[in-house]
């Protein structure tokens, strides 16, 4: 999907019911570099997500019991 459409996308929302973090970990570097906003159902991996995205310039905007929002 990202190979086909990823160059036209600058925001993504991930909500795949208990596989969110695993899917997030599969996102390629080139996509994270151009991405500007991400919303992800964190499955209690909030800190891992923040740490993995910070090298790409992401900052946390909001967090609740289910989701975390980050942007550049």
What would you say about this model in short?
The chain has helices at residues 2-5, 20-25, 29-34, 46-53, and strands at 11-14, 37-41, 59-63, 67-71.
Considering the chains and any ligands shown, give keywords for the structure.
single chain; 72 residues; alpha+beta; 4-stranded mixed beta sheet; 4 helices; 4 strands
What topology, given as strand order, has the largest sheet? 1-2-4-3
**Biggest beta sheet summary:** 4 strands, mixed
Averaged pLDDT, please?
94
Succession of helices and strands: HEHHEHEE
Strand content: 25-35%
Number of strands: 4
N-C termini distance = 23 Å
In DSSP terms, counting alpha (H) and pi (I) runs of 4 or more, how many helices? 4
Query: What characteristic shape results from the CA principal axes?
Result: globular
Helicity range: 25-40%
Structural category is alpha+beta
Low-pLDDT regions: none
Q: State Rg.
A: 11 Å
């Amino acid at each position: 999907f990202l190979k086909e459409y990823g160059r036209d996308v600058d925001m993504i929302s991930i909500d795949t019911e208990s596989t969110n973090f695993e899917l997030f970990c599969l996102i390629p570097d080139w996509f994270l570099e151009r991405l500007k906003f991400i919303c992800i159902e964190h499955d209690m991996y909030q800190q891992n997500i923040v740490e993995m995205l910070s090298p790409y310039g992401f900052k946390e905007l909001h967090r609740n019991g289910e989701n975390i929002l980050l942007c550049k």
